[in-house]
Design goal:
By secondary structure, this protein is an alpha+beta fold. Helices cover 33% and strands 23% of the residues. The protein contains 6 helices and 8 strands. The strands form 2 sheets. The protein has a 5-stranded antiparallel β-sheet with strand order 1-2-3-5-4. Strands 6-7-8 form a 3-stranded antiparallel β-sheet. β7 and β8 form a beta hairpin. α4 runs antiparallel to α6. The protein is globular, with a radius of gyration of 18 Å. The structure holds adenosine-5'-triphosphate (ATP) and magnesium ion (MG). The site of adenosine-5'-triphosphate (ATP) has 19 residues, from β1, β2 and β5.
């Protein structure tokens, strides 16, 4: 991928890679940030198929989530979109989350703390109530961090186009249309997985 940024951005290291992007840890205006650079084929896909700019789309979902008082602490802070001028790579700037993955926390503690599982429930319910569905809550995408001794999840990936808006096949279209699938169906399924499918030998009860 050709990278080209406005001055003032210093890349430090690769924070991670997704299907749609590569994410760098970077310095910008004396702050450590996450710089999410979209792969050109996904910039194209979102423009053609969904008629949105992928970076604006992700930023607006991230902002909508952060506007809900009960959700505020569970999302990385959106900082801005750069590269829309066409001269630079299209990227989204976001608070850098210094956390560990849900899996790592589970391994470390022998199970997920109750605070994380309860936060998962709050996230799905509150988001659903404000019309935010399909938040890509797959357990492998979740980072957790600790504040005053309490662990909680932080969501950073807001670029998934909700399936109910663009169902991939007629059966799913039918399920969403008739209510057989709730719009947040996949979110509920992901949260249930947080509890069930993590490969922990034993579950801790100390935090529950
Ligand atoms: N704000 C952040 N702070 C720290 N690390 C981050 C942040 N955002 C992303 N990452 C890292 O970068 C990786 C890729 O990010 P993300 O999953 O959002 O990309 P994506 O392209 O949307 O992925 P996919 O297409 O699979 O949904 C993450 O797994 C994580 O390790
Ligand atoms: Mg994503």
């Amino acid at each position: 991928m050709d990278l080209n940024f406005p001055s003032g951005l210093e890349l430090e290291s690769v924070a991670g890679e997704g299907r749609r992007s590569i994410v760098y840890k970077a310095r910008y205006r004396a702050e450590t940030v996450a710089l999410k650079i979209y792969r050109p084929e996904f910039v194209e896909k979102y423009r053609k198929k969904y008629n949105v700019n992928i970076a604006d789309f992700e930023m607006s979902r991230n902002e909508a989530f952060r506007r809900v008082p009960k959700l505020f602490r569970y999302a990385a802070k959106p900082l801005g979109v750069i590269g829309k001028d066409g001269k630079h790579s299209l990227a989204f700037l976001q608070e850098f989350i210094n956390g560990i993955t849900l899996m790592e926390l589970g391994r470390k503690k022998g199970g997920l703390p109750g605070s994380v599982l309860q936060a998962g429930e709050v996230i799905v319910k509150e988001a659903e109530a404000v019309g935010l569905h399909d938040l890509d809550l797959f357990y492998k995408n979740i980072l957790v961090r600790e504040q005053e001794g309490v662990w909680y999840p932080v969501i950073y990936d807001f670029n998934l186009m909700p399936q109910y808006r663009y169902p991939p096949n007629p059966l799913l279209a039918f399920m969403y249309r008739t209510g057989l699938h709730k719009k947040s169906h996949r979110d509920y399924r992901c949260i249930a997985q947080w509890k069930k499918t993590l490969p922990f030998e034993s579950r801790s009860t100390e935090d529950e």
